[in-house]
Amino acid sequence: MDGTHYMPAGLPAPAAEADGLDAPYWEGTRRGELWIQRCRACAGWQWGPEWICHRCLSFDLGWERVEGTGRIYSWERVWHPVHPALKGQPPYLVVLVELPHADNARMIGNLLGDPHQEVRIGTAVKAVFEPHDEAKVPYTLVHWRPDDR
Amino acid sequence: MKERSLRGKVAIVGVGETTYYKHGRAPDSEFALALQAILRACEDAGIDPRRIDGFASYSNDRNDPSRLAAALGLPELRFSNMQWGGGGGGGSAAVGNGAAAIAAGLADCVIVFRALAQGQFQRFGTALPAATVSGEAALTFPYGLISPAQRFAMRVMRYLHEHGIPREAQRAIALASYHHAQSNPRAVMYGRPLTAEDYDASRFIVEPFRLFDCCMENDGAAALVLVPADQARETRHRPAYLLGVAQGSEYRNAARGHNAPLYPTSSFTTVAPHLYEMAGVGPADVDVVQSYENFTGGVLMSLVEHGFFSAAEASEFLTPDNLLAPHGKLPLNTSGGNLAECYMHGLELVIEAVRQLRGESTSQVPDARVSMVISGPMVTPVSSLILAEGDVL
């Protein structure tokens, strides 16, 4: 909420897992792209990432770029600060977005705009990439805004 | 009845708890609280604590059975068990695990316990995460989705939407717990009644949860004594026989980043049928229910998944009148539960289920013979159990 970032500074920063499982996702966000797992054996989508395909039990999982459009599946407006960085801050919106282009895989993000806005489940939304180049290990978050197309 | 079953094989013959304290107010260490609760449960059962030969707990309880056995001078330790998973999902499962050990001949006298003095360690609701997070946390924490309330509000919001249930349906659950706590001198909220107006005026924690939809955090300990059914009659009180118990969760419930296929559930859709199958009773036979309130929306979903009413009927069913002892259709959380008696991580709910069968509740349901506990909605694994009087067997 400092103008460039939706959430105040000081919240936990994301890091790819040490075993490399989700590295392609986080690398993709740095380029402004959404990448999620897709099984090379059965072509099924999978999110969140895992080492095995839950459909066909193949370990041959690949990654594929997905269009950054979806619709709001659920949402919440957070009032109570549970982290020191949130003390004294206005409420904020968190949305769970499903991606129809990837078998309705779901992603958590913030809904940009007025935190008091009316939110409707089913609303079409578009991904907004928010780079944190200032971080010790730079990363990019993926937010959402209503898609007016 | 299936051949492989715990039905009627084990009984809860003793219950005990410490004074229940507000968060951070316990004068004793967490380990001492655990010992006090265990000794009170033994005294209640009228058995020598040196008969204990097993322990079962859940949610990463810090009080190691080997230390307990050494502290209590137990002649031998035969069974020590920790149910996987966080939250209160293991409350009924720990009873089931202890009972399974007894039925299989691995132990003869098992203590199920939970001790919690979060003031001496860390609170669940305000746990400060590291500066950098990875794995599932990386997908949610940077967006301010950190606490249990925030995690589960997302599920409940979707559930209310899918079934057209107004947010106010959660209110009756909170009012029932507070109402029952006013008759219970053990309750942390004894003497602190809650009105519908108080509820409506309370602040949002995270929509759709208001302050009174969320459990307390407390200090204290609780314990139960389990023995084989054929030894239960030698004890001091009327035994509470385990009729059925089940634990688990449905297909891919733990898919990361809120990707469970059946997302808006309390995780009981497969568990509840197993429970009823073992118990040999149905929802209509249940006289009184203790249902873990982490958040009231989870109680709503749990009651639907255990077949007490449909999601379509939820709004109409969930009135204070229907949920209050002695004469409501479904007396709920009759000690005050996690919201108003004590957040003893749901083990206080099992104690209350036993007291109902003994006729010793402070909000007694007349002639309660079948008594249910539902543990830890929306986490995975969850668990639930049914206790009954001897003549139900």
Please provide a written account of the structure.
The complex is a heterodimer of chains A (149) and B (393). Chain A is mostly beta strands and 149 residues long. Chain A folds into 2 domains: 16-66, no CATH class; 68-149, OB fold (Dihydrolipoamide Acetyltransferase, E2P) (Beta Barrel). Chain A is 5% helix and 38% strand. Chain A contains 1 helix and 9 strands. Chain A has one helix spanning 23-30, and strands spanning 13-14, 34-39, 45-46, 61-66, 69-78, 92-99, 105-110, 124-132, 139-146. Chain A has a 5-stranded antiparallel beta sheet, with helices on one face. In chain A, 36% of the residues are buried. Chain B is of the alpha+beta class. Chain B has one domain: Peroxisomal Thiolase, Chain A, domain 1 (3-Layer(aba) Sandwich). Chain B is 30% helix and 18% strand. Chain B has helices at residues 30-45, 65-71, 91-103, 136-140, 148-163, 171-181, 196-201, 271-279, 296-305, 314-317, 320-323, 337-341, 347-358, and strands spanning 10-17, 21-22, 54-58, 79-83, 110-117, 132-133, 204-206, 209-210, 218-228, 240-248, 288-291, 370-375, 382-388. In chain B, the strands form 2 sheets. In chain B, strands 1, 2, 3, 4, 5, 9, 10, 11, 12 and 13 form a 10-stranded mixed beta sheet that branches. In chain B, strand 12 and strand 13 form a beta hairpin. The longest helix of chain B is centred in the first third of the chain and has 16 residues, at 30-45. The N and C termini of chain B lie close together (12 Å). The model of chain B has no long low-confidence stretch (mean pLDDT 96). Chains A and B meet through strand 1, strand 5, strand 6 and strand 7 of A and strand 6, helix 4, helix 5 and strand 7 of B.
Number of domains of chain A: 2
- How many beta-strand segments of chain B? 13
Overall SS class of chain B:
alpha+beta
Q: Termini of chain A, distance in Å?
A: 26 Å
Mean pLDDT of chain A, nearest integer? Answer: 96
Strand content of chain B: 15-25%
For this structure, the CATH topology of the largest domain in chain A is OB fold (Dihydrolipoamide Acetyltransferase, E2P)
Helical proportion of chain B? 25-40%
SS class of chain A: mainly beta
Unreliable segments of 5+ consecutive residues of chain A: none
Oligomer designation = heterodimer
The ordered H/E elements of chain A are EHEEEEEEEE
From the coordinates shown, what is the CATH architecture of the largest domain in chain A?
A: Beta Barrel
Instruction: Estimate the helix proportion of chain A, in percent.
Output: under 10%
Q: What is the mean predicted local confidence, pLDDT of chain B?
A: 96
Strand order of the largest sheet of chain A: 7-6-5-8-9
Q: Number of DSSP strands of chain A? A: 9
Strand portion of chain A:
35-45%
